[in-house]
Here is the input.
Amino acid sequence: MSKEIVVRLVTASGRSRIQIQESANFADFQAEVEKRTGIAAAQQKFGLDPKGQRPVGGAPSAPLAQLGITNGAQLHLINQDASIAAQVLTKVLVPVAPEAPVARTDGGAAAAGSGSAAASSGAASSSAGSAAPKAEPPKKTIAVSGHPDALKVDPKFETFDSFIRNRRYDTAALPGSQRYVSGQITKGGMIKLPPAMSIKQQPYRHIDTLSVINVPEMENFIGYWQGDLLEHGMQRLGWMYGYYLEDNNYDEGCRAVLEGIYEPPQEMIGEIAQHKDDPRKDSVDRVMEACGLECIGWIFTTLLLDDDQLLSPLEIQRIGRLQNEFSTDLHFTKYRLSKFVSCAIRPDASAGGAPCLNPFMVSDQCCAMVRDGILTESTDRKHCVVREAKKNELISDFLVESKPTKKLLTDFFIVRVNDTAPKKHQRMFIHAKFPRENRPTQPQRGRDDLKKYFRNVPSNEPSWSRYADFHLLLYIAQEMDESTAIGIAECIRDRKEIPEGTQMLINAMVQ
Here is the structure.
């Protein structure tokens, strides 16, 4: 069976990845391009450069390989009137309007304006008015010492695709491709020492921006933590649902867009919230998939860390486990990577203790070390600690600035992600009024909440708009059935009227 290849198509209005069978011919490729861009096959002009000075083409029956169109190839569609939906993952297209310029921080740390935009409505309106500058070439970063692997104070990150393009798409030497295997000492046998590993900051990232398009959803989550839980010393977590788009602020960048937060059953373990086994999580995934959404990350609240620390060692390992769980090898290089974003909500001392949104990921090297059981949990609050070798076991030495150590500063593993709050946007869920699920200090949701919701939603709205509430959909899936919720979700996604029979069922519940 022929395997699929990925061809990166560049047009005047964006980029997209086209997946097609390796055995396909040029006519098959042109048909796929026509479907994506609206340019008829006879009018399509391809080139290896934006101006078409190195044209690519041939007979419709010519195999793609014969024309030099192979896995990972980048082609430019010269037609200026081509339009393309530059969605990164293979979900049903989400109908969103283009965003206006947004507030952005080049290094990835949450700035006061954009961070507060997710935390409070007042800050949201002020920060969103700022214009986002175009991405500049990476600036020189300052290292703590003169060593090339020294920890950098203000690291800059390339996009992943740009990084590997400059290395001819060689991923074999990347940290995620490495295995941290230990050796065994056998009596009378030869001792093979495992190779030493250098700990370095990652120069690239898989997600460049987290865009909070549903600001009321974020405000409600943070408000519940501040108003109900914080005084009792309790924390909160949730799964973030949304989709991925190409981020035109960066060379082949990727943006995660937040549309909703599902709060699973959870409990406090020590100082953190931990999710319990959740039999409904798969149902939530299926309903959101009908909307064209998927789980793009998680969000958690926490108290301020000491000494301006960004993430604690415990958080680093937890994020690494989640990124491994939500990893995939669908990238055209088959390199296993994750686009799972972690969002920490902490008090910001510079803003008078107001909560600030801090999106992060951890490096591929950290994920590989977590995957292979190299790191251990310890009481050290500033360092990730390499575990001790078992009896007759040999573990690699881990080098920081060429010196072996078992205590690794967390900053080596942190990858900062920008956060934005769009000034003008079209979010999928028009409303954010229905009560949230699994909140221990609030009454359990019921039919009275359903009645109250529809009383407060204008009756002159289109039917799909009246049902366009993230948590209402989840309630319908729980109280009625999943197939009904999926049908409504598809109508919300496509902006079409809810079937009359479904509306009659819901009306019977609210009478």
